[in-house]
Amino acid sequence: METVTFGTAIVRIYGRSNGKWEVKWREAGRGRSTTKTNKEEALAVAKAQARKLDGASGKQWVTAGEADLLKKVKALAGERSPFMWLDKVEEAINASGGLSELHEAANSYALARAKEFVSRSFADLYDRLEDEYRSHRRSETWKTIRTELKPFRDEIGSLLVESISPENVAEWCGRGNPSPRTYNNRRSIWGTALGRARDLGWINLHARTAAEISPKRREAKKSPTVWSPQNGRQILALLREKHPDLVAYFALQCWGGLRPSEAQDIEWRDIGEPSGYIHVRHEVAGKLSAERFAPIQSNLKAILESLPDIENRHSEGRSVYHRRRDIARLATFPAPLNAATRLAEAVIASGVVNKWPNDVCRHSFCTYRLASTKAIGAVAEEAGNSEAVIRNNYRKPVPKEMGEEWFEIL
Question: Residue limits of the Tyr recombinase domain (predicted)?
């Protein structure tokens, strides 16, 4: 059977057992046919009948084979013009000396690209990342990456990085039936690791990584956890009474918008200079390493000015050794060492809250700052993030009055 189309008309040709050819079509709701002695005559009749049935002008008839060919050319051309694509193919064939020569050139290019990367094991990649993050990047970020990758380094460390497939990533990220958000967070870590392998030339430099190919899971829209104004007052009172060395660290996040790592590493010389701003230098700035100036809110200024002298700024129960170490550090930095862990443990132990959500202080700052100002661009600049990230990940809808109440806490 062969099919001839013209516009919307369809005519089919069938070979019969007696060697003749039958032409069939439908007209006015009824089947029609005619018989010809050879295929060429039948094809000519089919084309004429299809043109007649369509009743149009300016169109061209095509056989089913020609239609398939056109469809394939369009698919290969993609978003480009099929004519432009064919011109490029013709140029390539002419430049290489023929179709067989072009095929050989393509194979040679593919082999050269395959040799661009050096085979390395996953253990090599893990060790390289650990060295880089500990030496040159953010130790806090490395903790998150290590939690995800370390079990695999111990279990499949000898696996070549180039052998990791999208199916592997999907299986590893889906262990334990996680929520879509947890799954996507794991996938993001694998994307970071494999992206670094690509930068190093350990996998194909010109292809997407297995993590990039493996699709994300759809997440339900969920607002971040933030402290209530009551929580803020309770935690601040607790720290002033029992852990005064942690007050500045807590306040710089809640009312200055600093990341935990930034509040840990920033120095006193960068707070208030220039007057009225927190200068977050690029070497202190978090993920984006982008320098910024965050305005010091009036309540934050009052909280910092009310801190006790350094000699008296220590937590209850600290050993003599730790007190001396803290005093030496607090002369330069607002936060003592290991402030993040100590703060979460102290607040949970007090019973004010039973859990310390990730980035809760920074989420609180962005939420209440946006509620009180309605200026997402300014909040994004102060927090060192894009407007999209603030809107999608850091903001919880709250009334303006609650935002104003947050920045009145002293």
Answer: 222-407
Query: Distance between CA 312 and CA 307 in Å, rounded?
Result: 9
| 147: DSSP letter | H
* Helix ranges restricted to H, 31-116: 39-54, 64-77, 82-96, 99-114
Only one residue has tokens 């039958």, namely: 22
Backbone φ and ψ of 292, nearest 5°: -155, 165
In tens, the pLDDT along 22-52 reads 999 888 777 888 998 888 898 888 888 888 8
370: left (phi over 0), alpha (psi -120 to 50) or beta: alpha
Q: CA distances (Å), 18 to each of 34, 39, 61, 65, in order?
A: 15, 13, 28, 25
What would the pLDDT profile of 243-285 be if each residue is shown by its tens digit? 999 999 999 999 999 999 899 999 999 998 778 899 999 888 8
Tokens, residue 175 = 């262990």
Q: What is the DSSP code (8-state) at residue 160? A: B
Q: Yes or no: say if 235 and 374 are a contact pair by the CB < 8 Å rule.
A: no
Helix (H) or strand (E) holding 4: strand 2-6
Rounded average pLDDT over 52-70: 67
In angstroms, the CA 178 to CA 184 distance is 9
Contact predicate 7/17, CB 8 Å? no
**Is residue 4 within 8 Å of residue 43, measured between CB atoms?**
yes
Q: What percent of the chain has pLDDT over 90?
A: 44
**Model pTM score:** 0.57
Q: How far apart are CA 327 and CA 299, in angstroms?
A: 25
